[in-house]
Amino acid sequence: MKVKALLDNAVRHLENAQQILKKQGKKEDGFYTDAKYVAIAGHVAYRGILIALNELMKQHGIKKSTRKHVDDYQDFLAKLDRKILNHFNIAYEILHLVMGYDGVGDFKTVQRGLECADIIINWVEKKLK
Fold it and tell me: Which domain covers residue 113, as residue numbers?
């Protein structure tokens, strides 16, 4: 798959996560009420980040045949850009753990996680140009 198509796929994942929350995520008192859709959206958005980062890692000669661990992404980003590493850590915590596993859907927290995902994907896109 070409780089542009991979990045489009990463963006599509993020947009899909936002649509899941918009269509299925009923809000009440500042919280999404259905943990199932919060978890799905969290996993989808986090997957978008990984798609983008995997391509950047590949461009830097990091081709790991096994599944990467969060530490692999953190180590890679620590060498390139500490600010993006901070965004990644926030996105990992919110999208993957808090939303994806716990299903916690505080509206402001969810929005922060999605914002970090967008920042990371845009950063990767600039790096690959």
Answer: 3-127
